[in-house]
Design goal:
Layout: E1 2-5, H1 15-31, E2 38-41, E3 46-48, H2 49-52
Parallel strand pairs: 1-2
Antiparallel strand pairs: 2-3
């Protein structure tokens, strides 16, 4: 599980966040490491890629606050 914060306070992922998540998952696959999630912490909540975007991380759900 990867976690980082956004100093702006907005937990919504940027295009760079999406790209690095894809790269981390691919790197994990090469090394036999399963990436379970990438979480972005914001001021009033968080964004979980596994809850929102990627089939390879999906568990259902939505943005949590």
């Amino acid at each position: 599980i990867f976690v980082h914060s956004h100093p702006s306070g907005d937990p919504d992922p940027s295009e760079s966040d999406r790209k690095i998540t894809e790269q981390l998952v691919k790197a994990g696959e090469l090394m036999g490491i399963e990436v379970l999630d990438h979480v972005i912490i914001g001021r009033d909540g968080y964004y979980s890629f596994s809850d929102n975007e990627f089939d390879f991380l999906s568990r259902g759900g939505g943005r949590n606050e």
